[in-house]
Amino acid sequence: MSLLSNVDKDHPMQHHLIVPIDFSSIKNVPESHIWAQCFEDAKINPDNEKSGALISIPIIDLEDPKALGLIFNACETWGMFQDTNHGVSKELLDQVEFQAKNVFNLPFEQKMKVLRAPDEDTGYGYPRLALFFSNQMWNEGFTITGNSYYHDAKKLWPNDFEGFCEVIFEYQTRMKDLGDKLKSLIFKSLNIPEPEEATPKDHIIALNLNSYPPCPDSTQTMGIGPHTDSLLFTILHQSGNASGLQVYKDEFGWVSVNPHPCALVVNVEDLLHIISNARFPSAIHRALINNKQKQRLSIAYFYGLPLDFEVSPFLDYPNCGGPQFKPIKVKEYASLKLKYLDLAVSFVRKSY
């Protein structure tokens, strides 16, 4: 049982919101998956251009001597950046992408053997975001926390599960190392001390494999609806065969985050938004379906803090203007997020 299971048990999902359709058998987009408004949003800027210049999130070399300042500026301006020289090899990124494809290309009946329980956070199914949208999203996910992958892999490949487990273990290890490094860099960029935490095993950390299958009419569907993430930050690997991820920025609208060779996307989550006293926006992002023929994959690693850790704004900097948020424990915020999605942060915001 994962650290988040007790939180999930208080907010179980209805069964029909967990079970994906069998995408391999779909000839036309069903009514349940049509998002008529997704391409009628007046704030969309399809070309991401302003004054003839391409608009994109920063790409930061973590070995650059100026990395701290670049990270601060990117987090403050976008709530998101892509990083290179992050220490995760291209071979490992290719391997985890290959293993994700192996999961999602299994027959539907086989994937259903690891269907997520309504009150659990691991296994196969639609994302929990499905609770908050009237239409279903064009994706399927496989969520891993801790060593949950071992038991699920034995159900998916009873006689050949070791390869999947080895790759996932190695990927989790490298992502944890990178997450620790990014946390240190981000907190140094804010000039604040790193949180004094419990033992590493108490951290909330999750790995989510995402598949966006080929779609008969990609103009009618949404891969992932707009949202912010809940914890400190997300580290995302995108497959390079198609773009789909977008981040929202007031002056530009929706800006595409196109895959950059060997780069990983890092986005600010809600708890870092609170700790930074709103200096860093929690990135509003979504995923479109941009390819009718090809499957698109992404692998998201969510880096958090222990459930019992109390989060509050750090105020020891000039002109901070007082705390914008009340202190709150991670598990309390996780519960608010599961009930209210992006409205959760408003319950923590102070009113003056």
Name some characteristics of this structure.
single chain; 352 residues; alpha+beta; Jelly Rolls; eight-stranded mixed beta sheet; four-stranded antiparallel beta sheet; 27% helix; globular; disordered N terminus
Structural overview:
With 352 residues, this protein is of the alpha+beta class. The protein has a single domain, classed as Jelly Rolls. The protein has 9 helices and 16 strands. The termini are far apart. The N terminus is likely disordered.
Give the topology, please.
Elements: H1 5-9, E1 49-50, E2 53-54, E3 59-61, H2 67-77, E4 80-84, H3 90-104, H4 108-111, E5 123-125, E6 140-144, H5 148-156, H6 162-190, E7 203-212, E8 224-227, E9 233-238, E10 245-249, E11 253-256, E12 264-268, H7 270-275, E13 285-287, E14 296-306, E15 310-311, E16 328-329, H8 330-340, H9 344-348
Parallel strand pairs: 3-4
Antiparallel strand pairs: 1-2, 4-12, 5-6, 6-7, 7-14, 8-13, 9-12, 9-14, 10-11, 10-13, 15-16
Unreliable stretches covering 5 or more consecutive residues: 1-5, 48-53
How many strands, what sense, and barrel or not for the largest sheet?
8 strands, mixed
Q: Roughly what percent helix?
A: 25-40%
Order of strands across the biggest sheet? 3-4-12-9-14-7-6-5
Radius of gyration: 20 Å
What is the C-level CATH assignment? Mainly Beta
Write the CATH homologous superfamily. Answer: B-lactam Antibiotic, Isopenicillin N Synthase, Chain
Distance between the termini: 41 Å
β-strand percent reads 15-25%
Q: What's the SSE pattern? A: HEEEHEHHEEHHEEEEEEHEEEEHH
Mean of pLDDT: 87
Count of folded domains: 1
Tally of DSSP β-strands: 16
So what's the overall shape? globular
What is the count of helical runs? Answer: 9
Which class of secondary structure composition applies to the elements?
alpha+beta
Fold-level CATH name: Jelly Rolls
Under the CATH scheme, which architecture would be assigned? Sandwich
Family: Belongs to the iron/ascorbate-dependent oxidoreductase family.
Keywords: Iron, Metal-binding, Oxidoreductase
Domain Fe2OG dioxygenase: 200-305
Protein name: Fe2OG dioxygenase domain-containing protein
